[in-house]
Design brief:
The complex is a heterodimer of chains A (209) and B (227).
Chain A lengths: L5 H5 L14 H15 L4 E5 L3 H9 L22 E5 L7 H10 L5 E5 H6 L20 E3 L6 H16 L23 H7 L14
Parallel strand pairs in A: 1-2, 2-3, 3-4
Helix pairs in contact in A: 2-6, 3-6
Chain B lengths: L28 H9 L3 E7 L2 E6 L4 H10 L7 E8 L8 E9 L4 E9 L6 E3 L8 H12 L2 E3 L31 H9 L9 H4 L10 H8 L8
Parallel strand pairs in B: 2-5, 6-7
Antiparallel strand pairs in B: 1-2, 3-4, 4-5
Chain lengths: 209, 227
Amino acid sequence: MGLINPATENRADETTTVSAVSPNFVTTKLDFLTNWARSNSLWPMPFGTACCAIEFMATAASRFDLARFGMERMSFSPRQADVLICAGRLPFKLAPVIRRIWDQMPQPKWSISMGACASTGGIFDNYSMVQGIDTIIPVDVYVPGCPPRPEGLMYGILLLQKKIRGETITDDALREEKLVGPSGLFLPPERVDELSEPFGNSVQQTRSS
Amino acid sequence: MTSGQPEPVPGTSQGPAVRRARPGSLSSSVAALRDAFGPAIERHFMSSGQTVVYLDPNRSHEVLAWLKDTPGQEYNYLTDVTAVDYRDPERPLEVVYQLRSLGRKADLRLKVALDKRVPLEVQSVYDLWRGADWLEREVYDMFGVTFVGHPDLRRILMWETYAEGYPLRKDFPLRGHFSRAEQTRQALAANPEAHYSLEELSIAETYGELPKEMQERLARGERGFLK
């Protein structure tokens, strides 16, 4: 008593997260059950804005048959949806719409960014286009392609199922709502600028201020 | 494939005789315009089979009204209103009217050159062709040309509080003026539900049945963004 441990003193300003529940036999078995149920009954909220939506429709149709993965029902209401699939480019005018839909979806929820434009802005590095929907909503799986083939989207969905099977109820951060903060963004502004950096042919373009 | 086009003979085909304009020849409207307006018609030329006529900006409405209503012209269909900003900063911005006479099957392209050193203004043709409503709004949105006399001149593609300027002007940088973070912040601040005016929603008749809060918002004329 009275002694100060220099090791702990130096770490005084670090934040330590102590979960209310630590993993044990009961929670891991419960995780297995809930994750099995969740990953095999993902109801997608289709947010098709461009040509990726055509590939998405092909994925849902009989030849590729998305229903094999428990995605039989397209949930056209965000209230019953589990996974938001943004298929296509997202203009700034649609940014508040997808944000509102994402906020309306109940937990647990995931999102897939389908295609180059949704993931990075793609070829549309211009004044009207969101440079990656991860500046608007959190994204779990990015599917590359322009547009991705149905096999590509299905692979992304399988990756998401794999991700869901690794989740645990003891991690509260997984179900944390990432809301738009007082800055008007849910990411720091520098992070948004960094994510929207020009690349590829875009670096040849001029930009004032 | 037959070589050479058969010459249309007026009055021989079924239906009433229609004086068809032959593609590739100068429109007969040019001579008529010069007779009627003289110095208000600046110059004309042919481009890809289209007759292009430049008009005096101050008298464009008068000339367009004449083209619409005069027998023998009857350009009753406004195909498009658009604008062109050239890379040369000295060159004026041009507002383009593409007219068509549905009865005569004739086209005419008219241009109004606007000096970029003064505010860009031209008379609206909304009173002549109702279809000009959204076309002129689009030109206003993209080029910043003010159409005097337009009943509802506001942005149509970009949101109404868009503050970066007019995207299709040549002096507008491709990525816009603001940083991506600022653009994203402004976009997320939009209120999509309140975007439409009472007229656009076509719910003017059911106004009484709307929720009270929505009635108040619409009565204030609120749309687009929350204050």
